[in-house]
Input
Amino acid sequence: MKNIITQSLEKSYTYQQYRTFVTTALETDPSILELQEDYLPYAELNEVRMNRLDKTVTIDTEIQAKLQQLKGAYIWLVLSESWCGDAAQVLPVVNKMAEATKQVDLVVVFRDQNNDLMEEFLTNGGKAIPKLIVLDKNTLEVLGDWGPRPFGAQKTVDDYKAEHGQFDDQGIVVLQKWYAKDKGQSVQREVLELMNGLK
Output
């Protein structure tokens, strides 16, 4: 596992590098992103979402204080892709949380370029993203993980599937409305809870 982690970290981007890479690719040569043919519109929509969230997301004052009190030194390694709607909603929040404390370094890797890592962190057997992996900065030991979406967002997806038999484009709209209403509060609470529960 440590070898997989090390190899993934070597291919990682800071949040700003990730954002710049995706933005530049979408503007100049989307093929660099290795998107499936029908995924480009999702990546373009997520670019708009992330630009907005980068400007508007605020971290709760109490959560900010607790992040600053973290005792260890951590790396938050996040598996993501430009087309993923959940990642577009979650990553800007996670970034603001990491910016709020000196105890956390955030890095991002592309899921499809890091399959060995993704295989270690499947959700119900699937390669669901985003997936946040908490590492001890000094030993690279995996301390915990979170994702791909907050509990309330997952319940929204599950309820929609139960009612409609599948999760379709209208389901995506319903999910995005949930995220808009939540304003990143659930991600903040759940990730902080993860950090507080580390050994």
Q: What stands out?
A: The mean pLDDT is 96. The chain is about 55% helix and 15% strand. The domain at 2-196 is CATH 3.40.30.10 (Glutaredoxin).
